[in-house]
Amino acid sequence: MDKDKPSSGYSLSVNDTSHEISKSWLGESLLYVLREKLGLYGSKNACEQGECGSCSVLMDGVLVCSCLVLAANATGRDIKTIESISDDDSLTDVQKAFVDAGAIQCGFCTPGLLITIHDFLETNPEPNVLEIREAISGNLCRCTGYGRIVEAVQIVSKQKSVGKGGSDDSS
Amino acid sequence: MEFHIALSTEEVCSLLAEDPTREILAGGTDFMVEVNFRQKDPSAVIAIDRVPELKQWRHDGDAVSIGSCVTYREIERGPLSTIVPALAQSARTIGSPQIRNVATIGGNLGTASPAGDMIPVLLALDAKVTIRSINGSRDVSIDGLITGVKETSLDDNEFIEAIKVPILKGPQEFLKVGPRNAMVISIASLAMVTDPEQATIAIALGSVTAAPSRAREAEEYIEGFLDWDAMTVSSSVLPNFRRLVGEASSPINDHRSSAAYRTHAVGVLGQRALLRIFESRDDG
Amino acid sequence: MTVVNETVGIRQSGIGVSAIRPDAKEKVKGDFIFSSDLSSEGMLWGQTLRSPHASAKILSIDISDALSISGVHAVLTADDVPGENIFGLERADQPVLADDFIRYAGEPVAIVAADHPEVARKAADAIRVEYEILSPLVDSYVAITAEAIHPEGNVIRHLNILHGDTEAVGDVVVEGEYEVGMQDQAFMGTESGMAIPSPDGGIDLQISTQWLHSDQEQVATALNMPMEMVRVTLAGVGGAFGGREDVSMHVHLCMLALHTGKPVKMIYDRNESFLGHVHRHPARIWYRHHASSEGRLIKVEAKVILDGGAYASTTSAVLANACCFSIGPYSVPNASVEGWGVRTNNPPCGAMRGFGNVQTCFGVEAQMDKLANELNLDPVEFRLANALKSGDTIITGQKITGTAPVREVLMSLANHPLPEPPSDNILERPGGTGRTTDGSHVKRGVGFAASIKNLMFSEGFDDFSEARCIVNDGFIAIQTACVEVGQGFVTLVHQIVQEILGIEKVDILPADTSIGSAGSTSASRQSWMSGGAVMKACEAVVDSLISDLSNEEGITFERIGTVLVAPDGSTSIPVADALQGRNYDETVVHRHAPTVPLDKNGQGDAHVSFAFAAHRAVVDVDEELGLVRVVEIATSQDVGRVLNPIQARGQIEGGITQGLGLAILEEIVLVDGKIQNANFTDYLLPTALDTPTIEIAALIEEPEPNAPFGAKGIGEPPVISSTPAVVAAIRDATGLDLNRVPIRPEDIALG
After folding, report:
1. What's the whole-number average pLDDT of chain B?
2. B139 to chain C, minimum CA–CA distance in Å?
3. For burial by CB atoms within 10 Å, which of B192, C117, C271, C728 has the most?
């Protein structure tokens, strides 16, 4: 971006759609813009200091807290939110496992956790429990005590292992 | 209200030269917390996290030069994790995976918090910080850069370009105490690096002093009792060593911990780090 | 009695199966609308200005600068409160907006509406308030006798429980003093909501809460509006745990919306959330326990001081719980317990999961270990020897008429295998990723604790819930005002309809004030109260159906399961089939058995039903650094009947994690009444790496008489004895007394 148009609006690519954002306050976070300007309320605002992970999104494929991204600095980057991870009526394997394993109570942390876990399983499809716990250590949940969430990740991991011909009796 | 995305270090230099009140935005993980909590109301910002040369690291003689926008994650997981292992150990303790994905080594220095977890490691390694401005560049030591609690010697028109970190052959350790097992601000931390070729040991403390601080007396004391060939240390001197490490701290009481505990903890960390590197020998 | 290790029944629907939450799909897709996700055309953003001082006199408020900011639509103060400038859950003692005195740091002083949240914040900053700063009263003990900080005095409640022979003396006597720090509910979704002015001059309030009708009443009083003009609708709740039982932004939103004629939305940020709701009462507790040399409890003496903060909230009821159950789940013939709930200039305290039982459980379980140690008895054996059972009388003179499987809870847990020895992996030891703790530094400890919790509201409160079952040509809709906070009541509604009507598809109508109250989602009461109401509403539909069939066909059917059967067995028809083509609309109010207030000696049948639990914690401790890794927590719990195994497990795991938090991490740190750590960087919630594997040794299914489906509430017991179990385990590892929670590293390292 050149410095000739610093104060005008900017564009954001969110879930493969380009949006023109008119800037009303420089300090606006990506989270605020996603929620209040684009109506994408799936990313949640629980702490606004990067401690809870409820606002997790992918930016150029990298897992970030959208509350800590200056919205204007997300221009030219590919943003993916919870709204993009499954089609209208379908669920991803992780979403399905969350439902089946009882990983959801109030559900406020759920979208952020799902983004985190999808990202994590991309690089580590067969994690052990400690790896799962460290991977989600940036996503606070107050309802579940994490037990059902870890279980959900294990369900998916086991499915992936079976899916690629791995043995599931090793556990 | 203006916002710039710089694409080269030259551009950063000229944007800062034009208006030194413009604020630098790197990973944003400290910057945006201040904005969100209304401790900061930015009016002009230069984002430097897309400047290619700031996002890379390279070998530079007996050192690595790490661009200021290299992320914690890169240091934790990439090849640097074996080149500067203590730096990787500290990176892993900082914030959450989400934070580590974007937070940068330059940001950790620029924020200059006493609890900045990379700072003791870089100080113990005697890393040099390359400061850049339109007038050229200069190298300063870590304690030359960080002068107090969230205070640096950076001029308004300067920014951190790179950190030159010596590659040492010897073992190095970073240990950090916090009440949680992850994602916690340190109450006390300690870095210890050794260079068996030079027979030197360096110890730096985190979260227990206002500005970065080496435990020089403890270093000098223990050097006399180290056997660099056998990599052993006399067990009888450990209590003194531990006390001297603790005495190098000058902590505060706050809502995170008492000063007494911080002093105690760095002493314990010092002894533990030492005994991971040197086997305890009973001189009878 | 049956001990069930969480076996999932073979039935596919109804009570007892792991039915899936009806809102699960919306929640995993990010489509579920929480209160913070509300928006409306032309809406404004609200902001609250709060006092930075814990005690002060307001000399003047100047709103002119704030009003002059472009985009600001309203700036309101105490003078603008239309009705009574006072609210409160048990008694109205708290101003909507401070008018003369500030009594805690964070007390609302003025409110703003603007077209952008940042403009609203800047306007709030521009309000000039002149304070005369006073010295805050922050010591709960001093507060009992100190000059009053509130017109109603400092002692909110003083309670004595005198039972049996208060002069009795045991062979063995142990004493102890205990302290509990201020814990926060720290629900993930902060306070948020929207108020929309309606054409009739009334107001529609959409809000995340725990108790719609209590909100409605308090808002109507403050707005000086008839109740029916204040329509409160539940907006999606991001957790509650007691922290949403009180009114927070409710009146503020309505005032701003009525004043501007526009919808107004407000979201507290995390910092403000810490200021905007009540917390768990900090407690100071003294105990003296007497036992016979054979190991029977003879007498317990206790004194309990709860710091209620500046306003009453539910302090009276929390104190009653703390005192009534100060003995734990044990049979004690003699007791003398004295409690005070007091006002200070600390932040107000009120409901949090466990509600008073948490505080005294921490002390009494430490005392039980001390006594066992003194008597040279195994702590579990000692507890077993004194365990309450059905038919026993508790210290309030009330006989337990329901189930009390304390022995079964304790024994099943004691028999559960212990976990593996400490890990070889440094990341699994105390200190985690900080890499502090080598194997040789690890000491393992095991601790045990048990608890009692009263279910539902006590002390004569008229506790009821209303439910409506609408049948439209075989389609079912259920309406209640029961608040879903994540606990899974919405799942239970489906299960109840399936159980009684045999119909899978159920519409759950929005929870709002167009139906009668469901009471609060608290006190482990909604499965019993609103679940019971839904059950009865469904049964009322069946009764009407049977009556209609009787008139039409001359056969008076009887319902057996989900099937209607003729008395002679000649014909039968599923309820679901019989409902086809028919319409019913039945509304039923469900009450539990009445209770009475405690008398002057703290005696009376004040409680409805009791639930029991026990926890066993295994910890690894790095004594030198004072770091703790909780390795495993195992539990057994008296549940009456498991309604939904997976939801039950979720409640248990989540509750235990909050108990763990209180044991070693969570405390609101106050200096002169001001919160030092109103954020998630310094108020430390357990992360996934701090939370251990949670083992359910047994869920004891002994159906509770009079409880719908025999089920006891399960939400609170997990949080009560998990804290003392973790502390007992740390004591076991270290030999330290550790009489205060949360335990900080320095309490161990420098202890």
Report:
1. 96
2. 30
3. B192
* Residue that the structure tokens 């052959």 belong to: B169
B29 touches chain A (CB under 8 A): yes
Contacts of A138 in chain C (CB under 8 A): 687
**What does the H/E/C string look like for B20-74?**
CCCEEECCCCCHHHHHHCCCCCCCEEEECCCCHHHHCEEEECCEEEEECCCEHHH
As a whole number of angstroms, the distance between CA C508 and CA C22 comes to: 9
Task: Please tell me the predicted confidence (pLDDT) of residue A163.
Answer: 73
Q: Is the peptide bond before C742 cis (omega within 30 degrees of 0)?
A: yes
Q: What is the DSSP letter of B121?
A: H
Contacts of C674 in chain B (CB under 8 A): none
Nearest to B177 among C627, C681, C750 (CB): C627
Q: Residue for token digits 């690894």?
A: C620
Residues C651-662 pLDDT 10s: 999 999 999 999
Interchain CB distance below 8 Å, C745 and B258: no
Beta-carbon neighbour count of residue C751 at 10 Å?
A: 15
pLDDT recorded at residue C587: 98
Q: Cα distance from C564 to chain B (closest Cα, Å)?
A: 57
Strand partners, A57: A64
Which residues in chain C have their CB less than 8 angstroms from residue A41's CB?
30, 33-34, 36-37
Examine the pLDDT at C8 and tell me if it is beyond 90.
Answer: no
- How far is residue B181's CA from residue B223's CA, in Å, rounded to a whole number? 32
Q: Is the pTM of this model over 0.95?
A: yes
Q: What's phi and psi for C559, nearest 5 deg? A: -85, 125
In three-state secondary structure terms, B230 is coil
Backbone angles phi, psi at C51, to 5 degrees: -70, 135
Alpha helices in chain B (DSSP H): 9-18, 31-36, 72-77, 80-83, 85-93, 97-102, 105-111, 118-124, 142-145, 216-223, 238-247, 259-277
DSSP class of residue B256?
A: T
Tokens encoding C456? 């539902």
Inter-chain CB proximity A145 and C37 less than 8 Å: no
Counting beta carbons within 10 angstroms of the beta carbon of residue C122, is it exposed (0 to 12), middle (13 to 18) or buried (19 or more)?
A: buried
Residue B176: list chain C partners with CB under 8 A: 431, 433-436
Share of chain C above pLDDT 70, in %: 98
β pairing state of B44-47 and A78-80: unpaired
- What is the mean predicted confidence (pLDDT) over C365-383? 98
C-alpha span between C656 and C662 (Å, rounded): 10
Q: Are strands B44-47 and B2-5 parallel, antiparallel or unpaired?
A: parallel
Which of C399, C365, C394, C407 minimizes the C-alpha distance to C612? C407
Q: Cβ–Cβ contacts within 10 Å for residue B220, how many?
A: 11
CB spacing of A29 vs B35 below 8 angstroms: yes
pLDDT at C423: 86
State phi, psi for B257 to the nearest 5 degrees. -170, 165
Would the pLDDT of A167 be above 50?
Answer: no
- Higher pLDDT: B228 or C474? It is B228
Kindly provide the residue ranges of all beta strands, DSSP E only, lying in C400-441, ordered along the sequence.
none
- Number of CB atoms found within 10 A of residue A140's CB: 26
Partners of C182 on chain B (C-beta within 8 Å) are none
3-class state of residue C145 by DSSP: coil
User: In this predicted model, what pLDDT tens digit does every residue of B39-48 receive, in sequence order?
Assistant: 999 999 999 9
Output the pLDDT for position A24.
73
Mean pLDDT, residues C459-485 taken together: 97
Q: Which residue has the tokens 């200059």?
A: B112
Could you tell me if C41 lies within 8 Å of chain A, comparing CB atoms? no
Question: What backbone phi and psi angles, to 5 degrees, belong to C121?
Answer: -65, -45
Is the ipTM reported for this complex over the cut 0.95? yes
Residues B187, C745: C-beta atoms closer than 8 Å: yes
